[in-house]
Each structure stands twice: as structure tokens, then as C-alpha cells.
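Fold this sequence, please.
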Amino acid sequence: MEAAGGILLLAATLAALVWANSPWAENYHAIWHTTFTLGVGHYVLSWSRHLWVNDGLMAIFFSW
């Protein structure tokens, strides 16, 4: 069961690679450039999903 997370991550990576290089690649890229907004009161962040992963999640990952 310890390897289940790694196997799931590998399967998701392979699926993304196949999808990004398929005839439906435009849909894949459209999802990454869709705006996602998160806010509380006057504090609002409105970034594309690409920026959320690159700037937000990577900063959290490398700070631990």
C-alpha cells in the first residue's frame, strides 16, 4: 500500500503525456489556462491553473 501514491502519480503523469500529445491537445492546454480564483474578503488571487501550480504549489512544496 505504500507504493499506491507513487503508482497513482505515475499513471496520472502518463495519462497527461498521452493527452497533451494527442489530437485533443487543445483541450488539455485550455484546462491549464482556465482562470481559477481564490479569495477571502478583499484578498483575491485570480490566476490560471498553470500559475497556481508553478507559483503556489511549488512554493509550498519546496518550503517543507
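The chain has a mean pLDDT of 92. Residues 27 and 45 are 24 Å apart (CA to CA).
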